[in-house]
Design goal:
Layout: H1 6-49, H2 52-69, H3 73-77, H4 80-83
Helix pairs in contact: 1-2
Length: 90
Amino acid sequence: MARKSIEERLAQLDAQRKTLQARLTRDERARDTRRKVLLGALVLHRIEDGNAASADYLRDFIKRELPGFLTRDADKALFDDILKPAGDSK
């Protein structure tokens, strides 16, 4: 078997590096998403089942901060149950 040239070996190593970098990026994105999901689940749990003081504090914080954070109408609609005043059917 013929020995690979230095250029071929470098190209192979570069391809391996790119593959590993892509895997690392994917894993970091997955970890970030998982953290966000768990944090959101905790907040929603505390709002729904927490004691009155922490639930009120979180609800007030979300009502104050979330509308400025969300930019898409579809995203805002996901939080209608929290952001809309009680009795507002719009």
